[in-house]
Every structure is written in C-alpha cells, then in structure tokens.
Amino acid sequence: MAEVTIKVNGAPVSRDVPDAMLLVEFLREELRLTGTHVGCDTSQCGACVVHLDGRAVKSCTTLAAQAYGAEVTTIEGLAAGEELHPMQRAFHENHGLQCGFCTPGMIMTGIDMVRRYRAAGQELDEAAIRHELEGNLCRCTGYHNIVKSIRQAAGEM
Amino acid sequence: MFQSTYHRAGSVAEARALLDGAEEAKILAGGQTLLPTMKQGLAAPSDLVDLRGIAALRGVTVDGGSVTIGAMTTHAEVAAHDGLARLCPALAALAGGIGDPAVRHMGTIGGSVANNDPAADYPAALLALDAVVVTDAREIPAEEYFAGLFTTALDEGEIVTSVRFTAPGRAAYAKFPNPASRYAMVGVFVAKTGDDVRVAVTGAGEDGVFRHEGLEAALAADFSPAAVDGVEISGEGLMSDIHGGVDYRAQLIAVMAKRAVAAA
C-alpha cells in the first residue's frame, strides 16, 4: 500500500491505497468526487483533467502516489458555494456543452490555459485556445461554443 | 489496474539502491509513457521508483553558452524557460510541441531520453546538439547513447540525471506529427555552429533516431532550404508502417529538413 497525503479542493486527505491506484481512481472511488471523468483511459481525451499544484494533468495517467504532498483541484473545487467559477458560468451561458461528459476536463483545461497565458503575458486568442485544446476531445459540440466559453471566461477571470 | 510496488525516492542514491534491490524495477519519471504502457500490459515492472520528489533533478541551468537540463524537468518547464528560449529557442519550441499541455506538465526530458521512443522528439535534439547524457555513473555522448528502438547505452539501474549541451549558433526543429497520436511521423532537428551542421532525424529510422550525413554535408556547404534539393534521401533503413511507407517518410525528411533550415 502507498500512503497518499494530499490536499483535495483545499481539504487535507490521507489514505493508504493500492500502490498502482491512479489519481482518477483515488478521486472517484476513494473520495467519491465523480465529477472527474474517465473517457478514453489512454491519456488522449482529457475528460480526467484535474489541477496538480495548479497545473492541468491527466489524472488517468498519474498515480495517486505521485501526487504525494501536492494540492489537487477538481471540478468540484471551483465554485464558491452557489457561485459558479467564471469558466463554469461561461460554459453555461455559451452552451459550451451538449452531453457534458468532457466538460469537467474542458473547464479544468480552460482555466489552466488562461492562467498560463496570463502569467506569460501572451494573448489567448481563438487560435491559441483551439491549439491548447489539443488534449481534450469533445464528440458533440464541434468545439465552437467551447472556444467561445473559454474566450469569455478569459476576460472575466 | 496492475500490481507494482511503489517507492518514493528522496535522492538519486536512494533511487539507485531501490532499483538494485528490486526484482524488475522501472524508474517512474513523469509516467506519461510508462503508465499507459503498463495499462496496456506491455510493461509489468515489479517495482516503480518515483523520482518526482528529488528536487536536485529538476530545472534548467544556463551558464554562458552551456545548458544543463535536469532529468525531471518537465516539457512545460523546458518550453517556458526564458534563458533557454533566448539561447536555444529550437529546443524550447520542441518541448512545447510534445503531446498536449497536460502531458507536458508531467512528462520529463529524462523519461523521454531513457525511453528512446523512435518517434519521440528529444532524441533528435540531443543528437543534433551533440549533447551529453549525464547519469549517476558517467557521461554519455548522445552519439553513443541512442542505441536503437527503445534502446540506450544505459546499464541496468543506471539513472539519467541531466542532459547538457552547448548552445548552437542556429537551430530549428520541424516535425510532421501523426494526426492521431501527435508523435513525429518525421521530425528533423538542424543545428549549425560555425561551419559545422548536424542534422538528426526522428520518427523515420528503423533503428530510431539517426544523423543524416548527406544533408549535413550539403547544408554545411550551403545552409539554405534549396541545398536540400540536391540531396538524395535513401529509403534504406527507414520505417514503413500503416502510417506511411518508406518513400513517404523519405520525402518527409526532405520537407522537414527544408522547413527546419528556413526556421533556423
């Protein structure tokens, strides 16, 4: 068993889990945070994206044990009570989803790209958003409203 | 998912002891290749030795014209490093083109180099930059280090600790990514320092990354995209698979070489 002591959405968590347990399994099965999805399970689709110490990672391709000592943020950790995070609100207002399966990963990836571009002083234009979404697949929307949502949120975050 | 005993190493020496003491251990760097490989049942190490906690293996150091990149430095960190972007923008751009943003936040240069995937990007850079792979035991020139498909000069349990090179005068990397996997169908890294030109090709060789002497000679004489036209790119030793045949890859080598020279 491996000891996993991390912070998840601000709350300290410590568990002994099987050595090879994936971070996404830890979140979904140990903590019952089922907002993080498993889509392809082959690190292609991005439905499992969470933030590890503030950076987007694929939780299906990360061991829970690798996150030792880190802070993990999931889709459940974004809203402040009833008030949605600007990225969540933008997806809602722009109809940035259809079935919704990829949405948690899209939102976590969206927040990550906005923060990174801002920190680097780079403009996150439409082309950049589309390029940054390379690791997140949506099979419903055709991406247009997802891109629109991220653009809106980038101006509000 | 799979059975494997996880170890968190606090130092390189501890990692080495853990590796030596285990039956069939593998180093876990960022895990972006190893974990998917384990999920597919293509690797089943008895033990995983995680280097993530070893701070000394992380970071980019620029000292005059010399660049040292710690083995556990992520692709995202290499891509975003200001000093490197000034000294060798080709390598920063290469790192920023590996996988996708989330993969780049975990994947490491040491992991990529140790795995030596024949379609990985870093091997082309290291070979063209005449880099040295530094391990816990010795220093290995890239020329000797890359030894075939998924094969390196590393001994059992030997740990890559950093990669070092002298910044070239001009350099660029051009790749044609596979539309699905985003791995290089062909990637060409061109580096020019003084009159010396080195050209390394990834994604195309049956034995993994290789230098192209014909392109090097032509570009040393005339460092221009047009010089590539006069070079015969032989299909001998090139890979052929469902993604592309030998002729297609040979053609891509010429096209990517031209693009790299134009961008350098």
Oligomer: heterodimer
- Assign the CATH superfamily of the largest domain in chain A: Beta-grasp domain
Taking the alpha carbons of the first and last residues of chain A, their distance comes to: 40 Å
Percent of residues in helices of chain A:
25-40%
Describe the model.
The complex is a heterodimer of chains A (157) and B (264). With 157 residues, chain A is an alpha+beta fold. Chain A has 2 domains: 2-74, Ubiquitin-like (UB roll) (Roll); 86-156, DNA polymerase, domain 1, CATH 1.10.150. Chain A has 5 helices and 5 strands; from the N terminus they run E-E-H-E-E-E-H-H-H-H. Chain A has a 5-stranded mixed beta sheet, with helices on one face. Chain A is globular, with a radius of gyration of 15 Å. Chain B has a 5-stranded antiparallel beta sheet with strand order 4-5-8-6-7. A 4-stranded antiparallel beta sheet of chain B has the order 9-10-11-12, sandwiched between helices. Chain B folds into 3 domains: 5-50, 2-Layer Sandwich (Uridine Diphospho-n-acetylenolpyruvylglucosamine Reductase, domain 2); 55-166, Uridine Diphospho-n-acetylenolpyruvylglucosamine Reductase, domain 3, CATH 3.30.465.10; 170-263, Enolase-like, domain 1 (2-Layer Sandwich), CATH 3.30.390. Chain B has 12 helices and 12 strands. Chain B has 264 residues and is an alpha+beta fold. At the A-B interface, strand 4 and helix 3 of A face strand 1, helix 2 and helix 6 of B.
Summarize the structure.
The complex is a heterodimer of chains A (157) and B (264). With 157 residues, chain A is of the alpha+beta class. Chain A is 34% helix and 16% strand.
